[in-house]
Amino acid sequence: MTRIAFIGLGNMGGGMAANQAKAQHQVAAFDLSEAAVARAVEHGCRAAGSVAEAVKDAEVVITMLPAGAHVRAVYGDHVLPHAPKSALLIDCSTIDVESARAVAKQAAEAGFRFADAPVSGGTAAADAGTLAFMVGCEAADFAVVEAALQPMARVVIHAGSSGAGQAAKICNNMLLGISMLGTCEAFALAEKLGLEADRFFEIASKSSGQCWSITSYCPVPGPVPAAPSNRGYAGGFATAMMLKDLKLAQDAAAKAGAATPLGAQAEALYALFERLGHGGKDFSAVIQMLRGQLDA
Ligand code: NAD
Hints:
This protein is an alpha/beta fold. Helix content is about 50%, strand content about 15%.
């Protein structure tokens, strides 16, 4: 049994903390939202009144926060001054590479082991304990990080040193955003050319156009029953979240001097879709805009 401090019990963190408690670990849970803490308590966690209280005797600290600014503040102001130096620190939020590296450096200077470990898989995977983790940390620390993440994971992959987990996450999601737009354009054109969607699905899924956006997350209803397209694009991976990740990718590309013209175009299209009022819909709903079904 491990003493875990879990900070950030939102859509993702709530299910993740519950899975740590289910694995018989002692979880001290904190969130700015009292309702989120109350839900964690219902799932076997102990309520902590502050970050400092949650981490004071922790062996592992896990954070699942919205963005880089939150992560910098929570570690800089609360975790590093109050956690025991022996605690293993793991941030699972999706944040900018620069913030991840800055927090890792600050943690190392204070004598802590720190890993960035963003996840792939949405709230369903968080609840089921089947997330994919991509980890940036010292090679020597990976085995303990992997063991700590195991109750929440389907797979844990070492991406490289500090910040490599965040780099992998934003590159993967940039590719996903681009491939979904390509898939939507292809289905929208197929419709205009009089091709039935399920015929095109069968052909593309067995041809060189095959990709995850077609075979696992088809943006038209029917061929992939579990895809959000079958339930009015509710749930799934929100357009606003995809846009956040595409912005992180563009920001990182600008700083690194990398050419990402398709990533930039994907960001612009998702930003337009959000401005039209669809930030809450699953990102595959962008097919509606490409078909011209929405008011421009
Ligand atoms: P969320 O907004 O539901 O949860 C974030 C939680 O952090 C909130 O409950 C908020 O109250 C809490 N919080 C903010 N500042 C805090 C502080 N100073 N101290 C304590 N708690 C604080 O967001 P989410 O959907 O759970 O996403 C969390 C992270 O996971 C994000 O970085 C997101 O990009 C990433 N992510 C989300 C998904 C998804 O499908 N939702 C998938 C993969 C990755």
